[in-house]
């Protein structure tokens, strides 16, 4: 109880935009705090309604569509919760080719995509040989907002990425509790991770972070610590990823993170920081098969939808684009992702996402 009330005091929340909220959500002018992550039924509906209003006040009814490109799945780290960990011998490793990616992204990306996130495992080779030149080409030849998620790197590499044209760095702190961070072999140390987040912010990056909801043994207080840490960091955005037990990881037998827990965390983040970019991560559809994305709008946290991912298909040596709504769409470099197989409309119960092709709101992220 002590930890929960400390969380309530330390997390600052946005003012309720209207007087339609009830005292069941707000106590002494403040939401109840981290215990709301377990809310269900009417209480959860009220929490989500409040987050929806905060989202609409900032972003209206539109969301951004951010494509995700997985350039490499090599990783020098060994996180217990991730299938890309270095000790996973069963994973086919790849690094996508620069020219293939350039061709696809410059000439054949979906027209709805306004932003692109380029990500790798912790693989400095791929950063040097592929990511930096790819960003230069994209900056020169497309209007895309460019974010990167590449792990901790040397300070001069951050500068090179920035000079190439990337503006947002995604570095998730994953777990706010340093003992759990160590126990789960999360990358490096928590202190180092946080220092890199602060360094990136000082260098002028817009930094987005994130944490995992539903890890084995995680308590409500732990979730509160995650929310509180997010609020203390110099961030422009934050995601919440439901824990997904990877098949070839030491946690493969653990229970999948709860979708309601995740959505409640997103709603609380939205109330904490109405202006943050809070993306819908693809793992939401794994935690809530067939419904994960559809519940994000009503939960109110959403401002960006990472619906498509593009990655290298090793068996066919082709680039493959995944759509969260229609399943997989495969394309050889040179084929256009369009026509009937491209999702035209994404429906949410309360209509947060209704515009065809996800028209971007205002300017891009980056
Ligand atoms: S650093 Fe990232 S990609 Fe590598 S094992 Fe950990 S979570 Fe996976």
Explain what you see.
There is one protein chain. The chain has 366 residues and is an alpha/beta fold. The chain has one domain (2-358): Aldolase class I (TIM Barrel). The chain is built from eleven helices and 13 strands. It has helices spanning 2-10, 41-59, 98-107, 124-141, 155-164, 178-183, 190-202, 220-232, 259-272, 283-287, 296-299, and strands spanning 26-27, 30-31, 64-72, 115-120, 145-149, 168-170, 206-213, 237-242, 279-280, 304-305, 308-313, 318-323, 327-331. Strands 3, 4, 5, 6, 7, 8, 9, 10, 11, 12 and 13 form an eleven-stranded mixed sheet that branches. Strand 12 and strand 13 form a beta hairpin. Helix 1 packs parallel to helix 8 (220-232) and helix 4 (124-141) packs parallel to helix 5 (155-164). The longest helix has 19 residues, at 41-59. The chain is globular, with a radius of gyration of 20 Å. Residues 1-31 and 307-366 have low confidence and may be disordered. Iron/sulfur cluster binds next to loops.
